[in-house]
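Ticket #4471: complex job returned nothing on first submit. Input attached below:
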Amino acid sequence: MTATLKEFQVDTSNLLFSKLTAHDYEQIVFCQDKITGLKAIIAIHNTTLGPGLGGLRMYNYKNEADAINDVLRLSRGMTYKAAISGLNLGGAKAVIIGDPRKLKSEAFMRKFGRFVENLNGKYITAEDIGTTTRDMEYIKMETEYVTGLPEIMGGGGDPSPVTAHGVHLGLKACAKEVFGSDNLHGKKVLVEGIGKVGGNLVHLLSEEGAEIYVSDVNEEALKNLAAEYKVKVVPLDERFNIDIDIYSPCALGATLNDENIPNLKCAIVAGAANNQLADETVHGPALMERGILYAPDFLINAGGLINVYTELNGYNRAIAMAHTDAIYDVTRSIIKTAKDENIPTYAAANKMAEKRIDEIGKIHLTY
Ligand code: NAD
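Support reply: We reran it on our side without changes. The output follows.
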């Protein structure tokens, strides 16, 4: 087969390596398979603390640049989440480009599993948006380096109750700071997004006697929830108009932005959604200036990661829950650092994660 030199020329106007160097990514793997149509990117950000564990996202990205940006951003986030949660894990993530409803097959997912296997344990995959436990079962046929398996296969099953437990503790740790007590009885909490995590959180809050407000795009889910729990349904476009104590974003990310932060009527923001601040360097300080306490999302929603981490040594939900308990104390400690150093809580959390990576990295240099 012949090919001209010109065919191999790539667009170098946006050099990828400058991006990788800026945030110190270790390795990016591009995987393609003509037979199944698989196009995947695995980004390993940092393995100082252990193998990079991060979910496999499958999404019909508009273009390759969007897919690369997503996998870079998400893998770096995993490094921080694992570090702050005290896990011996690094940060990594994988994306597959394409529509999950059209492209997926057994061979497709197994081929991805073979690429994971080739990395020899440097990357461990898991479920994410667009992939399921069934996909993880196919991947498992080709590699040991997969988590998020169903319970009958020794996996942890749905991680959402563990995530909700951590988020609940995050809320309580913030309440202790703001109200002097971590008892949420009578506190007005708005849960935005009552899916797997939000629904479990509503359960925990109702057991504690909180006054619960809920918003969601899914009317049917709201109706079902209101039949089971004492909750007040708030239309989405009115959710920032009501006076509450705690706003808990448990749906999409980037819900805190220039428009709504000046209008928030709450004392605490603490929820499960990833990347709640549209721009952390702008909106972290903006919340701080308004005197609103923000619980860093990657810290309090780490229960899901802790759950899959527990699978690596033989899954046990009690251990996953017990490990997640630490979120309360870590949140308290971050609030203290943020106060002492007069910095936003997200910055205090980043500092704590970086400090652990730095210190453990140093002890690994010597025997
Ligand atoms: P889910 O899909 O089960 O629930 C999401 C809910 O949000 C659904 O009820 C959906 O109808 C609702 N929703 C969607 N768009 C909305 C909008 N614009 N406004 C209001 N509601 C909207 O997801 P989940 O597993 O509960 O996860 C919730 C969030 O927590 C996500 O951001 C996820 O990335 C994050 N998270 C989840 C876990 C986990 O263990 N499931 C772990 C860490 C982080």
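Residues 159-160, 163, 192-198, 215-218, 221, 236, 250-253, 272-274, 301, 304 surround nicotinamide-adenine-dinucleotide (CB under 6 Å). Closing as resolved unless it happens again.
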